[in-house]
């Protein structure tokens, strides 16, 4: 049996300026099914998500929108 490696995807999020922003985005992204970890870099405006399987960009965009911010592009 092969071990499934986690998937790491990085997205650019605009509008985050403080720790409250980080908390709001982290909470929304963490609620997505399969997400194991969310790391936000406020300086670069990136959200790095570790999950069991690739996430649909539409789901990530909806979560970021719900937090009140904007996802730029489709992620890496």
Automatic annotation (TrEMBL):
Key words of the record: Metal-binding
InterPro entries the record matches: Cu-bd, Heavy-metal-associated_CS, HMA_dom, HMA_dom_sf
Domain HMA, chain residue ranges per copy: 7-72
Molecular functions (GO terms): copper ion binding
CDD domains for the chain: HMA
GO biological process: copper ion transport
Superkingdom, natural source: Bacteria
Name of the protein this chain belongs to: Heavy-metal-associated domain-containing protein
Native species: Micromonospora tulbaghiae
